[in-house]
Design a protein that fits this description.
The protein is an alpha+beta fold. It has 19 helices and ten strands. The chain is elongated, with a radius of gyration of 29 Å.
């Protein structure tokens, strides 16, 4: 770093007698001085912008409004003039901010949704008409939406994949992301768009997602699920049957630990053990009763292990020496060590911690949701089920049976399907989830009988099908 000059001098003095010295490191100018009894250094940038920033710095010091860079994190509002950002630059700033707030997985989804809009915004004619993000108007929104209907994509973005148009649901997702990005940029706390700028993306321009038919047929009724059970091998029975009976999301099933099986009360625990890293959607914690017909299957899934992932890969399930840890505390210690060994910036949110924890479970033999879905689709094909159903639609079938078949009350059904139960009635009444699940298990008795028969055939458990025991 060497002494330098800006505006004809090395030292600049404010009206209050504060002296600012100009230095240079490479192509960057730096202003150094003392403010409120403390040394500070402010990077002014290259020669094209340093003079303007120096004037702004001197004015802020004279007005008493200056904050050193070390205190910048305390600011509640963004400082400085509104930058002249292109659409791509605004998208980059938005994604970087969201990465720190919602985690890498959601930020990646946002990025995928913004890609078609970036393609539209950077077409030569459109760059000329809307050169900056602040120029986005109703015409941009209308033309961008029309562009989305002409877009072509492929499964998982593969270059050699079969091209197909964007789905109506995805077009709504893209427009909602555009609206969210512009609203974030127009917020005075972020200061990325001029004051008074109005967001041209309205509810009408976003559109509404296609509504589901309330009278649609259940793609996986009880008799179909019972037929699928008869085709399962031992590993499939231990891994997939709980999802055939209980309303679990695939992500929730993959996150189950051996410690989450309460054999005394016949319950599966979700979001209760290690809730800071193994939480459910919306971070809802709940208990899901299971029938006696599942006891032997869950015991086989646990095996001789004392902790670790409940549902394992086929290879880990048949392994002579099972992978695992001794206690839940050991599992937490392994995860803590994994967090400390990650590169800086990789773990920034709770969801990043959850992704890292699920990766640890897979290294300990845990199965992934994609692997479960592949196995389930193979069973559907073997059972002659029409294409379209998957492990992700199975939960809908189970919930439909609980609602329209077993007629479970709304509050109990809301709780058992891992939704937040903030209804005012829960303040005055308790939920009888065990009693309602007994009624549901009686309704799905043919499915439970099929599970018992297949378990006996495979030698997993030879307990007779009985009534539900809590």
């Amino acid at each position: 770093m060497v002494p330098a000059e800006l505006m004809g001098g090395h030292v600049h003095e404010t009206a209050g007698g504060k002296r600012i010295h100009i230095w240079r490191r490479g192509t960057k100018f730096i202003a150094r001085g003392r403010f409120q009894g403390r040394h500070f250094g402010e990077t002014l940038g290259d020669e094209s912008s340093a003079t303007t920033k120096l004037r702004r710095l001197l004015t802020a010091i004279e007005d008493g409004a200056y904050r050193p860079p070390s205190e910048a994190h305390r600011r509640q509002l963004a400082d400085g003039t509104v930058p002249r950002l292109t659409f791509r630059q605004l998208a980059e700033v938005f994604l970087a901010a969201k990465r720190k707030q919602v985690g890498i997985q959601t930020a990646t989804d946002y990025r995928a949704r913004l890609v078609p809009l970036l393609v539209f915004a950077e077409l030569p004619a459109n760059r000329k008409r809307w050169p900056l993000a602040a120029d986005v108007d109703a015409g941009f929104v209308t033309d961008a939406r029309a562009h989305l209907y002409a877009c072509r994509t492929s499964r998982n973005g593969r270059a050699a994949g079969q091209p197909r148009p964007l789905s109506p649901r995805q077009i709504v997702n893209v427009m909602e992301t555009l609206r969210a990005m512009l609203a974030w940029a127009a917020d005075p706390r972020n200061n990325k768009l001029p004051p008074g700028w109005l967001n041209p993306v309205t509810r009408g321009s976003v559109g509404t997602p296609p509504a589901k038919d309330p009278f649609r047929r259940d793609p996986l009724p009880l008799e179909v699920r019972a037929r699928i059970v008869g085709l399962m091998d031992a590993w499939q029975l231990c891994t997939l049957v709980p999802s055939l009976i209980l309303p679990m999301r695939p992500d929730e099933a993959c996150g189950l630990l051996t410690d989450d099986v309460d054999f005394e009360y016949a319950e599966l625990l979700f979001g209760i053990n290690l809730p800071d890293v193994n939480f459910t959607k919306k971070k809802v914690a709940f208990r899901l009763p299971f029938p006696s017909e599942l006891r032997a299957i869950l015991e086989s899934a646990v095996g001789d292990r004392t902790s670790g992932p409940l549902l394992r890969t086929r290879r880990a399930y048949t392994r002579a020496t099972p992978l695992g840890v001794d206690t839940l505390a050991d599992l937490k210690a392994q995860f803590d060590q994994r967090v400390l060994s990650e590169k800086p910036g990789r773990v920034q949110t709770d969801h990043d911690r959850k992704i890292l924890f699920r990766r640890l479970l897979r290294e300990l033999g845990g199965v992934s949701a994609d692997a479960m879905n592949r196995e389930f689709k193979a069973l559907l094909a073997a059972a002659g089920v029409a294409p379209g159903a998957s492990l992700y639609t199975l939960r809908s079938s189970v919930t439909t049976t609980m609602s329209t078949g077993a007629k479970l009350p709304h509050l109990e059904l809301t709780y058992l399907t891992s939704h937040s139960t903030r209804d005012i009635l829960t303040r005055y009444t308790s939920l009888d989830v065990h009693g309602e699940m007994r009624r549901y298990f009686d309704h799905v008795r043919p499915l439970l009988d099929a599970v018992t028969r297949r378990s006996d055939e495979l030698g997993i458990g030879r307990k007779e099908a009985g009534s539900y025991e809590s």
